[in-house]
Each structure stands twice: as structure tokens, then as C-alpha cells.
Specification:
It contains seven helices and no strands. By secondary structure, it is an all-alpha fold.
Length: 135
């Protein structure tokens, strides 16, 4: 975040140019490598919001993928493993320098990950799935 704060003028300029070209705000934030990490700053223009993203509800979470702010994880299991690995997708990946310092490996057992996945899937309404609804 500190590195990003030093780049606010550059990042916000790139974002504003995309908006001026008529690019949808969500598309501008999610498809450009530089602006994809702006987070709520793209909406609020508050430097404190850099790298902060709206946390979606877990209601019907099993059918709302792909997950993460950039859609990079396809399944709930991938999300659980991502956080179990301390915020990295694969244990050998480098830690993203923009992550909060509070994100640490969870050290969940295989059974705990299975239980968490089952719990999250239980938050999806069968009626919602049968009806073909999507939020």
C-alpha cells in the first residue's frame, strides 16, 4: 500500500483516462494491471481506500464465482486454500506486497478445510439454484 500511495497521481491518472474514454469503472479497475489494485479508491478518491475492496455477502456463495476482486479463483476450495496459504494461490508463490500485514497462513487441516467448504456451500439456497437465479 505504501508503494501504491506514492503512485497515486500516476494510478489515478490512468484510471481517469480510462473513465474519460468511456470505459466502465468496474472494467477499468478490473482489467488494467495498474488500476486493478486501486480498490475503493477508484470510487472514493480517498488514499486510505487504496487496496480496499467491498466484501460481498456469502449468501449463495457457491454459485457466485469466480472469486476475489479480480476473478482469479474459480472455486471455493481455491479461495480457502489461498487464505490457508497466507494469501497466496500456490505455496511457492511470492506474497503480494499490497496485502495487509495481517494476512497470515491459517494452518487449517484438510478436515477443517473440508468443513469450511461444506459450511460455505450450505449458505447457498437450493431454491435459488433450481430457479437459475444469479445475484
Amino acid at each position: 500500500i505504501n508503494d501504491m500511495a506514492g503512485r497515486v497521481p500516476e494510478l489515478s491518472s490512468a484510471f481517469m483516462l480510462a473513465k474519460q474514454r468511456g470505459t466502465d469503472v468496474d472494467v477499468a479497475v478490473l482489467t488494467d494491471e495498474d488500476t486493478s489494485h486501486l480498490g475503493r479508491f477508484a470510487i472514493s478518491d480517498d488514499v486510505a481506500d487504496m487496496g480496499a475492496f467491498k466484501t460481498p455477502t456469502l449468501r449463495n456463495v457457491d454459485v457466485t464465482g469466480p472469486y476475489m476482486h479480480d476473478g482469479s479463483l474459480e472455486t471455493l476450495r481455491e479461495v480457502i486454500e489461498h487464505y490457508n496459504n497466507g494469501g497466496v494461490t500456490h505455496p511457492d508463490d511470492a506474497v503480494n506486497p499490497y496485502l495487509s500485514g495481517g494476512i497470515r497462513p491459517l494452518n487449517l487441516t484438510e478436515q477443517q478445510m473440508n468443513d469450511l467448504e461444506a459450511f460455505m456451500k450450505a449458505l447457498t439456497s437450493p431454491q435459488y439454484v433450481r430457479g437459475g437465479n444469479q445475484e
